[in-house]
Amino acid sequence: MKKSAITESNIDEINYRLWNNRYSNATVTLSESLSVLAKAIKSDYQKGIAYSRLNIAACSFLQSENDIAMENLTKAQLWFSENQSEPGYSWALNLKGTLYESFGEYEKALQFCLQAHKLSIEIVDRETEAETCSQLGLIYTRLCDFSKALEYYMEGLKIRDELKDENAMASSLNRIGMIKRLTGKYDESLEYYFKSLAIRRRNKQASSIPWTLLGIASTYEEMHNTSEALEYYEQGMVGGDRRCTLQCIMGSGRIFSLSGKTGKAEERLGESLRMAQDLKALSLVAEAYSGLADHYESTGQFEEALKNHKLYQKTRE
Length: 317
What we know:
Layout lengths: L1 H19 L5 H17 L3 H17 L3 H15 L6 H17 L2 H17 L3 H17 L3 H17 L3 H17 L3 H17 L6 H14 L3 H11 L5 H17 L3 H18 L2 H17 L3 H15 L1
Helix pairs in contact: 1-2, 1-3, 2-3, 3-4, 3-5, 4-5, 5-6, 5-7, 6-7, 7-8, 7-9, 8-9, 9-10, 9-11, 10-11, 11-12, 11-13, 12-13, 13-14, 13-15, 14-15, 15-16
Protein backbone atom coordinates (compact mmCIF):
# COMPACT_ATOMS: atom_id res chain seq x y z
CA MET A 1 0.00 0.00 0.00
CA LYS A 2 2.79 2.42 0.86
CA LYS A 3 4.59 1.70 -2.38
CA SER A 4 1.36 2.37 -4.34
CA ALA A 5 0.86 5.74 -2.61
CA ILE A 6 4.40 6.83 -3.45
CA THR A 7 3.91 5.76 -7.06
CA GLU A 8 0.69 7.75 -7.33
CA SER A 9 2.32 10.80 -5.76
CA ASN A 10 5.19 10.59 -8.22
CA ILE A 11 2.78 10.27 -11.14
CA ASP A 12 0.89 13.38 -9.97
CA GLU A 13 4.10 15.35 -9.58
CA ILE A 14 5.32 14.41 -13.06
CA ASN A 15 1.96 15.14 -14.67
CA TYR A 16 1.78 18.64 -13.16
CA ARG A 17 5.34 19.34 -14.28
CA LEU A 18 4.60 18.15 -17.81
CA TRP A 19 1.47 20.32 -18.02
CA ASN A 20 3.52 23.38 -17.07
CA ASN A 21 6.19 22.46 -19.64
CA ARG A 22 3.85 21.75 -22.55
CA TYR A 23 4.75 24.93 -24.46
CA SER A 24 8.52 24.70 -24.03
CA ASN A 25 9.03 21.43 -25.95
CA ALA A 26 5.86 19.64 -27.01
CA THR A 27 7.73 16.71 -28.57
CA VAL A 28 9.67 15.84 -25.41
CA THR A 29 6.66 16.46 -23.18
CA LEU A 30 4.51 14.20 -25.34
CA SER A 31 7.05 11.38 -25.11
CA GLU A 32 7.23 11.68 -21.32
CA SER A 33 3.44 11.86 -21.05
CA LEU A 34 3.05 8.61 -22.96
CA SER A 35 5.51 6.97 -20.57
CA VAL A 36 3.61 8.27 -17.53
CA LEU A 37 0.33 7.08 -19.03
CA ALA A 38 1.71 3.55 -19.33
CA LYS A 39 2.76 3.59 -15.66
CA ALA A 40 -0.62 4.97 -14.55
CA ILE A 41 -2.49 2.31 -16.54
CA LYS A 42 -0.27 -0.41 -15.04
CA SER A 43 -1.09 0.88 -11.54
CA ASP A 44 -4.77 1.36 -12.46
CA TYR A 45 -4.44 4.94 -11.17
CA GLN A 46 -7.39 6.71 -12.75
CA LYS A 47 -6.39 10.25 -11.80
CA GLY A 48 -2.93 9.69 -13.25
CA ILE A 49 -4.43 8.28 -16.43
CA ALA A 50 -6.72 11.31 -16.84
CA TYR A 51 -3.95 13.89 -16.34
CA SER A 52 -1.58 11.94 -18.62
CA ARG A 53 -4.20 11.89 -21.37
CA LEU A 54 -4.80 15.61 -20.86
CA ASN A 55 -1.07 16.26 -21.35
CA ILE A 56 -1.03 14.05 -24.43
CA ALA A 57 -4.01 15.96 -25.82
CA ALA A 58 -2.37 19.34 -25.22
CA CYS A 59 0.95 18.31 -26.81
CA SER A 60 -0.80 16.65 -29.75
CA PHE A 61 -2.74 19.85 -30.39
CA LEU A 62 0.48 21.87 -30.31
CA GLN A 63 1.84 19.50 -32.98
CA SER A 64 -1.36 19.92 -35.05
CA GLU A 65 -2.43 16.32 -34.39
CA ASN A 66 -6.00 17.37 -33.68
CA ASP A 67 -7.65 13.94 -33.99
CA ILE A 68 -5.25 12.42 -31.45
CA ALA A 69 -5.76 15.44 -29.21
CA MET A 70 -9.55 15.14 -29.26
CA GLU A 71 -9.45 11.37 -28.68
CA ASN A 72 -7.29 11.68 -25.56
CA LEU A 73 -9.12 14.74 -24.28
CA THR A 74 -12.48 13.00 -24.58
CA LYS A 75 -11.19 10.05 -22.57
CA ALA A 76 -9.67 12.34 -19.93
CA GLN A 77 -12.92 14.27 -19.56
CA LEU A 78 -14.79 11.14 -18.53
CA TRP A 79 -12.81 11.21 -15.27
CA PHE A 80 -12.71 15.01 -14.86
CA SER A 81 -16.48 15.30 -15.29
CA GLU A 82 -16.79 13.12 -12.17
CA ASN A 83 -14.05 15.07 -10.33
CA GLN A 84 -14.82 18.71 -11.10
CA SER A 85 -12.92 20.05 -8.10
CA GLU A 86 -9.67 19.06 -9.82
CA PRO A 87 -7.78 21.95 -11.49
CA GLY A 88 -7.47 19.74 -14.57
CA TYR A 89 -11.22 20.07 -15.14
CA SER A 90 -10.91 23.74 -16.15
CA TRP A 91 -7.75 22.93 -18.14
CA ALA A 92 -9.67 20.28 -20.07
CA LEU A 93 -12.61 22.60 -20.75
CA ASN A 94 -10.33 25.32 -22.07
CA LEU A 95 -8.41 22.86 -24.23
CA LYS A 96 -11.66 21.55 -25.70
CA GLY A 97 -12.64 25.12 -26.53
CA THR A 98 -9.22 25.62 -28.11
CA LEU A 99 -9.70 22.55 -30.30
CA TYR A 100 -13.15 23.68 -31.44
CA GLU A 101 -11.71 27.11 -32.26
CA SER A 102 -9.09 25.46 -34.46
CA PHE A 103 -11.90 23.56 -36.26
CA GLY A 104 -13.74 26.86 -36.87
CA GLU A 105 -16.63 25.91 -34.56
CA TYR A 106 -16.62 29.17 -32.65
CA GLU A 107 -19.91 28.90 -30.79
CA LYS A 108 -18.89 25.56 -29.26
CA ALA A 109 -15.45 26.98 -28.50
CA LEU A 110 -16.99 29.98 -26.74
CA GLN A 111 -19.23 27.75 -24.61
CA PHE A 112 -16.34 25.67 -23.27
CA CYS A 113 -13.91 28.56 -22.75
CA LEU A 114 -16.47 30.71 -20.91
CA GLN A 115 -17.16 27.77 -18.61
CA ALA A 116 -13.41 27.27 -18.03
CA HIS A 117 -12.93 31.00 -17.37
CA LYS A 118 -15.72 31.11 -14.78
CA LEU A 119 -14.40 28.01 -13.03
CA SER A 120 -10.80 29.26 -12.94
CA ILE A 121 -11.96 32.43 -11.17
CA GLU A 122 -13.99 30.39 -8.66
CA ILE A 123 -11.02 28.17 -7.71
CA VAL A 124 -8.56 31.10 -7.86
CA ASP A 125 -6.37 29.54 -10.56
CA ARG A 126 -4.80 32.73 -11.93
CA GLU A 127 -2.65 31.01 -14.53
CA THR A 128 -5.65 29.24 -16.07
CA GLU A 129 -7.72 32.41 -15.81
CA ALA A 130 -5.11 34.18 -17.95
CA GLU A 131 -5.05 31.23 -20.36
CA THR A 132 -8.83 31.35 -20.77
CA CYS A 133 -8.69 35.12 -21.27
CA SER A 134 -6.26 34.58 -24.12
CA GLN A 135 -8.43 31.90 -25.72
CA LEU A 136 -11.62 33.92 -25.33
CA GLY A 137 -9.85 36.84 -26.95
CA LEU A 138 -8.98 34.63 -29.92
CA ILE A 139 -12.55 33.36 -30.29
CA TYR A 140 -13.97 36.90 -30.18
CA THR A 141 -11.35 37.85 -32.75
CA ARG A 142 -12.67 35.12 -35.05
CA LEU A 143 -16.19 36.43 -34.43
CA CYS A 144 -14.95 39.95 -35.36
CA ASP A 145 -15.83 41.39 -31.95
CA PHE A 146 -12.48 43.16 -31.65
CA SER A 147 -13.31 45.34 -28.64
CA LYS A 148 -14.33 42.27 -26.61
CA ALA A 149 -11.24 40.42 -27.82
CA LEU A 150 -8.92 43.25 -26.79
CA GLU A 151 -10.60 43.42 -23.37
CA TYR A 152 -9.81 39.75 -22.71
CA TYR A 153 -6.28 39.99 -24.13
CA MET A 154 -5.46 42.97 -21.92
CA GLU A 155 -6.85 41.22 -18.83
CA GLY A 156 -4.77 38.15 -19.63
CA LEU A 157 -1.64 40.26 -20.09
CA LYS A 158 -2.25 41.98 -16.74
CA ILE A 159 -2.56 38.65 -14.90
CA ARG A 160 0.54 37.24 -16.58
CA ASP A 161 2.51 40.36 -15.69
CA GLU A 162 1.43 39.96 -12.05
CA LEU A 163 2.54 36.31 -12.17
CA LYS A 164 5.88 37.35 -13.73
CA ASP A 165 5.28 34.78 -16.49
CA GLU A 166 7.33 36.36 -19.26
CA ASN A 167 6.79 33.61 -21.84
CA ALA A 168 3.02 33.79 -21.40
CA MET A 169 3.23 37.58 -21.63
CA ALA A 170 4.86 37.17 -25.05
CA SER A 171 1.79 35.22 -26.18
CA SER A 172 -0.53 37.99 -24.95
CA LEU A 173 1.59 40.66 -26.64
CA ASN A 174 1.41 38.67 -29.86
CA ARG A 175 -2.36 38.51 -29.81
CA ILE A 176 -2.75 42.18 -28.92
CA GLY A 177 -0.54 42.88 -31.94
CA MET A 178 -3.01 40.88 -34.03
CA ILE A 179 -5.97 42.94 -32.81
CA LYS A 180 -4.12 46.19 -33.52
CA ARG A 181 -3.40 44.92 -37.04
CA LEU A 182 -7.00 43.89 -37.64
CA THR A 183 -8.20 47.35 -36.56
CA GLY A 184 -5.70 49.11 -38.85
CA LYS A 185 -3.34 50.35 -36.13
CA TYR A 186 -0.24 49.03 -37.86
CA ASP A 187 2.47 50.94 -36.00
CA GLU A 188 1.03 49.81 -32.65
CA SER A 189 0.68 46.29 -34.02
CA LEU A 190 4.37 46.09 -34.95
CA GLU A 191 5.31 47.53 -31.55
CA TYR A 192 3.51 44.70 -29.73
CA TYR A 193 4.79 42.05 -32.13
CA PHE A 194 8.42 43.11 -31.79
CA LYS A 195 8.11 43.15 -27.98
CA SER A 196 6.85 39.58 -28.18
CA LEU A 197 9.63 38.60 -30.59
CA ALA A 198 12.31 40.02 -28.29
CA ILE A 199 11.04 37.94 -25.35
CA ARG A 200 10.71 34.77 -27.39
CA ARG A 201 14.18 35.09 -28.88
CA ARG A 202 15.75 35.94 -25.52
CA ASN A 203 14.08 32.94 -23.87
CA LYS A 204 14.76 30.66 -26.87
CA GLN A 205 11.08 29.82 -27.46
CA ALA A 206 11.86 28.19 -30.80
CA SER A 207 8.37 26.84 -31.50
CA SER A 208 6.67 30.16 -30.64
CA ILE A 209 8.92 32.52 -32.61
CA PRO A 210 7.34 31.61 -36.00
CA TRP A 211 3.91 32.76 -34.76
CA THR A 212 5.32 36.21 -34.05
CA LEU A 213 7.09 36.27 -37.42
CA LEU A 214 3.73 35.41 -39.03
CA GLY A 215 2.09 38.36 -37.27
CA ILE A 216 4.82 40.77 -38.35
CA ALA A 217 4.62 39.51 -41.94
CA SER A 218 0.82 39.88 -42.00
CA THR A 219 1.11 43.45 -40.73
CA TYR A 220 3.66 44.38 -43.38
CA GLU A 221 1.44 42.77 -46.03
CA GLU A 222 -1.50 44.94 -45.02
CA MET A 223 0.82 47.97 -45.09
CA HIS A 224 1.63 46.96 -48.71
CA ASN A 225 5.28 46.50 -47.77
CA THR A 226 5.68 43.32 -49.82
CA SER A 227 9.44 42.90 -49.49
CA GLU A 228 9.35 42.97 -45.66
CA ALA A 229 6.23 40.79 -45.65
CA LEU A 230 7.84 38.11 -47.82
CA GLU A 231 11.03 38.16 -45.73
CA TYR A 232 9.12 37.49 -42.48
CA TYR A 233 6.78 34.91 -44.10
CA GLU A 234 9.81 32.98 -45.32
CA GLN A 235 11.40 33.10 -41.85
CA GLY A 236 8.14 31.97 -40.24
CA MET A 237 7.94 28.86 -42.44
CA VAL A 238 10.73 27.24 -40.41
CA GLY A 239 10.35 25.69 -36.94
CA GLY A 240 6.67 26.27 -36.21
CA ASP A 241 3.75 23.87 -36.08
CA ARG A 242 1.79 23.06 -39.23
CA ARG A 243 -0.91 25.68 -38.64
CA CYS A 244 1.68 28.43 -38.46
CA THR A 245 3.70 27.03 -41.36
CA LEU A 246 0.69 26.80 -43.67
CA GLN A 247 -0.31 30.41 -42.90
CA CYS A 248 3.21 31.58 -43.75
CA ILE A 249 3.12 29.52 -46.96
CA MET A 250 -0.27 31.04 -47.80
CA GLY A 251 0.95 34.56 -47.08
CA SER A 252 4.02 34.11 -49.26
CA GLY A 253 1.71 32.81 -52.01
CA ARG A 254 -0.32 36.02 -51.86
CA ILE A 255 2.89 38.08 -52.07
CA PHE A 256 4.13 36.08 -55.06
CA SER A 257 0.75 36.67 -56.73
CA LEU A 258 1.02 40.43 -56.17
CA SER A 259 4.57 40.32 -57.55
CA GLY A 260 3.45 38.57 -60.75
CA LYS A 261 5.22 35.29 -59.91
CA THR A 262 2.31 33.14 -61.01
CA GLY A 263 3.93 29.71 -60.74
CA LYS A 264 5.22 30.23 -57.22
CA ALA A 265 1.93 31.81 -56.15
CA GLU A 266 -0.17 28.86 -57.32
CA GLU A 267 2.27 26.38 -55.79
CA ARG A 268 2.25 28.05 -52.37
CA LEU A 269 -1.50 28.73 -52.28
CA GLY A 270 -2.32 25.19 -53.40
CA GLU A 271 0.00 23.73 -50.77
CA SER A 272 -1.58 25.82 -48.02
CA LEU A 273 -5.07 24.66 -49.09
CA ARG A 274 -4.05 20.99 -48.89
CA MET A 275 -2.50 21.51 -45.45
CA ALA A 276 -5.59 23.33 -44.15
CA GLN A 277 -7.87 20.55 -45.43
CA ASP A 278 -5.63 17.94 -43.79
CA LEU A 279 -5.91 19.81 -40.47
CA LYS A 280 -9.71 20.22 -40.92
CA ALA A 281 -9.25 23.91 -40.09
CA LEU A 282 -12.27 25.43 -41.84
CA SER A 283 -11.29 29.07 -41.36
CA LEU A 284 -7.90 28.41 -42.98
CA VAL A 285 -9.50 26.37 -45.78
CA ALA A 286 -11.74 29.36 -46.52
CA GLU A 287 -8.78 31.73 -46.43
CA ALA A 288 -6.86 29.54 -48.89
CA TYR A 289 -9.81 29.43 -51.31
CA SER A 290 -10.06 33.22 -51.06
CA GLY A 291 -6.37 33.61 -51.84
CA LEU A 292 -6.67 31.31 -54.86
CA ALA A 293 -9.77 33.14 -56.10
CA ASP A 294 -8.02 36.52 -55.89
CA HIS A 295 -4.95 35.13 -57.61
CA TYR A 296 -6.86 33.57 -60.51
CA GLU A 297 -8.90 36.75 -60.97
CA SER A 298 -5.73 38.88 -61.12
CA THR A 299 -4.25 36.57 -63.80
CA GLY A 300 -7.42 36.52 -65.92
CA GLN A 301 -8.31 32.90 -65.14
CA PHE A 302 -11.91 33.81 -64.42
CA GLU A 303 -13.38 30.29 -64.47
CA GLU A 304 -10.91 29.13 -61.81
CA ALA A 305 -11.49 32.35 -59.87
CA LEU A 306 -15.26 31.79 -59.81
CA LYS A 307 -14.87 28.14 -58.79
CA ASN A 308 -12.61 29.02 -55.84
CA HIS A 309 -14.80 31.95 -54.81
CA LYS A 310 -17.82 29.63 -54.62
CA LEU A 311 -15.81 27.15 -52.54
CA TYR A 312 -14.76 30.04 -50.27
CA GLN A 313 -18.39 31.10 -49.76
CA LYS A 314 -19.51 27.52 -49.11
CA THR A 315 -16.75 26.97 -46.54
CA ARG A 316 -17.51 30.27 -44.78
CA GLU A 317 -21.17 29.31 -44.47
